Amino acid sequence: MIIADIVSYLEQIAPPAYQESYDNARLIVGNKKAIVTGVLICLDAIEAVVDEAIELGCNMIVAHHPIVFGGIKSFTGSNYVERVVIKAIKHDIAIYAAHTNLDNIFKNGVNAKIAEKLGLENTRILAPKRQLLEKLQVFVPNQAMEQVSEALFAAGAGNIGNYSDCSFVSNGIGSFRPNQEANPTIGKAGELELQSEQKIEVIYPAYLQSKIVRAMQAAHPYEEVAYDIIALQNSLQTVGSGLVGTLSEPMEARAFLKKVKEQMQTDCVKHTALIDKPIERVAICGGAGSFLLRHAIAAQADVFITADYKYHEFFDADNALIIADIGHYESEQFTIELFYELLTQKFINFAIHCTKVNTNPVNYI
Questions:
Q1: CATH code: domain of residue 200
Q2: Which residue from 15, 203, 212, 258 has the highest number of Cβ atoms inside 10 Å of its Cβ?
Q3: Is 106 helix (H, G, I), strand (E, B) or coil?
Q4: Which residue ranges of the chain lie beneath pLDDT 70?
Q5: Which residues, at least 6 apart from 123, have a Cβ–Cβ distance to it below 8 Å?
Q6: The domain containing residue 58 runs over which residues?
Q7: How many domains does the chain have?
Q8: Is 208 helix (H, G, I), strand (E, B) or coil?
C-alpha cells in the first residue's frame, strides 16, 4: 500500500474540487509512491504531532487543517509552519489535508459527524453549492445507446441524490457526409448519410468532465463524436456549507445547550438570548460559520451551532434564533474520529492511530 492509495481513497470521498478557493486541501508534503508504514490522524499537523508520528513509526499524517495555506518563499524554521514542513521532510513523513472539501460534503462530512453526535435526523445541506454540475448531450446510433450509456454511468455520470443511472433519451435523425479522408463506421465517403440516432443526456459533477468524456469517446462507435457540454446553475444538494436537521423530540433551550456542551465536549458555549420556544430544528457548521446565519434563519432553525463568532455578530441573531458558539477546535475535533472510521473500514494492512496531542491553541480557566 502506498501513500497515493490513501490519497486517492480520501479524494473519492471528498473531492478536492469541492474545497473553497482559499483552501489547500491536498498532499502537502511527501512522496506519493512511498510505502505506508502507518498513519497518524489529527486536526492540526503541529510539531508535537510530527514528533508523535516519528515515535509511532508512522510515515503519513492525515490532518483536517492544511499546515500550509499560502505560498512559502523560504524554509528557515522561523515559524511553526516552516518547522513542521522541515521536520516532516527530514523524517520522510507525508502530510495530507482534507479541509473544506470534507466540510462541504453531505455523506461522511464534518457536519454529518456533528449531527450524529447531537442525534439530528432528516438532515440536509444548509447552503447547497451552485455551478458544480454539467450536462452532457451525446448523439449515438440506436444500436450503441446501451453501451455508451453504461460507459457514462460507470465513469460517474447520471447520479442524482439517491438515484443512479439517470438519463434522458430522445430519438432523431442525424446527418453527415464523410470526406475522402474519413473512415466512417456508417456510410461512404462523399455520400450524405441519414442515420436514426438517439440523444443521451446525463448530468455529472463538473470535476469529472475529462473522465466522462474519455469514457464516452471510448465506447462510441463513431470516428467523430457529436456531443455538447452545458454548464448548469442547479444546486448540488449533496455539496455545500453547513447542515440542518431536527431533533427526535423537542427540547427546552437551556437543556439543549447543556446537551450540546456535553456531547461536543466543550468547556464553554457562548450563546445569544434564549428563545421562548422548544428547540427542534438545528443548524450546524463546523469551524467558522457566521456567513451561514441567514441560511440558518431561512431554514427556520431554532438554534445555529458553530464557532468563531465575533462580539457584534451575535446581535445579528435578532431574536430569530439562538447562536451558539462552541469553539473552533471543539466543533471539529470529531473529524479525527471521522477519518479513523473511513480509513479503518478500507485499509487493514498498516496501523492507523488517532493523535493523543491536543492541538487546540485556545485554553480556558
A1: 3.30.70.120
A2: 212
A3: coil
A4: none
A5: 106, 112, 115, 243, 244, 245
A6: 3-99+334-354
A7: 3
A8: helix
